[in-house]
């Protein structure tokens, strides 16, 4: 069993605000969502909580309790940035880090004792690294992530649980420390359980019989066992290349030479990981001290240096910077490149550039709603289908069939009438005898049916109908439908 | 014979026939043969009559089909086909002209012919009557020959299959075994 460290940041939203404004540290601080006077506190730091300020109360009430309270509005970007910083700091300690949610990072510290030191040294290093990015963590070390997290949340700055002592440590921890589902927590409360130790003493088999998988998982957690897989956090790659210049560049030709070198370096990196880009963010540092930014969207994902350079040149010709350039930075937005052709034995698919231009023109011609790849819908309704965006991939589908293998029987196709044409049908008993539609009456020479279908009776889209295949005197072989809900006949298509 | 034999790479194939003659079934069979080989196909559907569920049952790999619905506008369908035949990479462009078959000018047909010759695409036009004239490398006429009904009672309860006669009207620059006047019989399950 490998040991884990857990870095936990108390009152994370407030800690994220303090990270941006270090002067707020140790001052009562509340993070507020909504404008005054209806704004409500969503997070408060430890100093504010000493004045009994907590989440849920109005800003006015919080100020009444703590006149020196500082408030900051909620910011998703600030919290996301702090969360990212925490994970980056944890990655400097171990390459195996799991994002446990806002303000929580699990670190697999197996094997670090020879590299860094014992568990306490690793924990101190983790505290130091996280502190360096402006956050003040509490760290717990234990044989399981849950035990490490509870140690961090209930203990002092660093808490080490010796291997094998997890159950003893967890025995006194209240059940509410683990976020069990509400119904499960209610059941435990009804049984009189208060601590994880009391839960751990219950017979496992009986718990499984009564509560199923959720009960067994709760029992595992109470014993300090983590069965959930460890989801390793893989940081997003940072696709940027920059070039500082020792002299000022005032002409586009000279700048293009520098841009080409920058793009070549960037595309070489992209090439290694088979990633293309669909947008370029160009930032030029100007001799005047300012910066000049251009965002250039690409019609299709590519890592073609010459194409990117041409697009940048065209853009800068149309929108030149107003001063000489002393630095160049290019950032790109990565997109997964589609391989083409797919394989040695597959015919080549259309080139991305040709296909992008074609789809754009077709969309302009017929509209986006009329263009795409048909896909059967998840319904038994005979005419149900969905239209997905077309992606020209000749890659073999999993379990793809090949010509000659398991050939399906040739089938008579139905030319569907969209929408189905309402017709009047004269019947002989239940069987159609003649059909009148569009002012013309035709006799039925032969018919087969009925095929009764129905579905989605639980929904407003319920359908129930009888289908008939009929041969008409005008040589058409049609499908007629008698709708049981509307009591109407429709011609839904002609076999052809 | 396999329906792919009616496809002419870099040429135009016409499938003509009246209602319920089997021309749409033949067109979809061509789509099936192409997509099951792993190639990409496009279907220009003038009247929005394509049945995706039926095509999937017939063996068409729908993920390799670009479906262009033209809202009963033949001019749009021709324009869409004109755009598609100029894009290399499609093995088959199927143009279903619908019930209101448009008149194709001589200029348009030769424009399509030259475009498919350059890209190597097979263009199949399904129509009520011939529209491509001498620009078509292969012209096929379909007509219904037989109907088979099944039943366990006196009244038929199921249409079992339909027989279609496929007659070669014109063959120019295609396989030598495909000769004008030759008739094949194809059976389609209902």
**Using only CA atoms, what is the Rg of chain A?**
34 Å
How would you name the oligomeric state of the polypeptide chains in this document? heterodimer
Stretches of chain B where pLDDT is under 50 for at least 5 consecutive residues are none
Q: Which CATH architecture of chain B would you pick?
A: 3-Layer(aba) Sandwich
Q: How many H/I helical runs of chain B?
A: 4
Binned, the helix content of chain B reads 10-25%
- Quick check: average pLDDT of chain A? 86
CATH topology of the largest domain in chain A: the name is: MutS, DNA mismatch repair protein, domain I
Helix content of chain A: 25-40%
**What's the total count of β strands of chain A?**
20
Mean pLDDT of chain B: 88
Spell out the helices and strands of chain B N to C. EHEHEHEHEEEE
User: Architecture of the largest domain in chain A in CATH?
Assistant: 3-Layer(aba) Sandwich
Reported by name, the CATH topology of chain B is Rossmann fold
Distance between the termini of chain B: 20 Å
Largest interface: A-B, 65 and 71 residues
Description:
The complex is a heterodimer of chains A (496) and B (190). With 496 residues, chain A is of the alpha+beta class. Chain A has five domains: 4-160, 3-Layer(aba) Sandwich (MutS, DNA mismatch repair protein, domain I), CATH 3.40.1170; 171-223, 5' to 3' exonuclease, C-terminal subdomain (DNA polymerase, domain 1, Orthogonal Bundle); 240-334, 2-Layer Sandwich (Dna Ligase, domain 1), CATH 3.30.1490; 338-395, no CATH class; 414-495, no CATH class. Helix content of chain A is 30%, strand content 31%. In chain A, a hairpin with a 4-residue loop joins strand 10 (275-286) and strand 11. The radius of gyration of chain A is 34 Å and the shape is extended. The mean pLDDT of chain A is 86. With 190 residues, chain B is α/β, with parallel strands linked by helices. In chain B, strand 4, helix 4 and strand 5 form a beta-alpha-beta unit. The mean pLDDT of chain B is 88. Classes of the chains: A alpha+beta (496), B alpha/beta (190). Chains A and B meet through helix 13, strand 13, strand 15, strand 17 and strand 20 of A and helix 1, helix 2, strand 3, helix 3 and strand 6 of B. Strand 13 of chain A pairs antiparallel with strand 3 (65-69) of chain B.
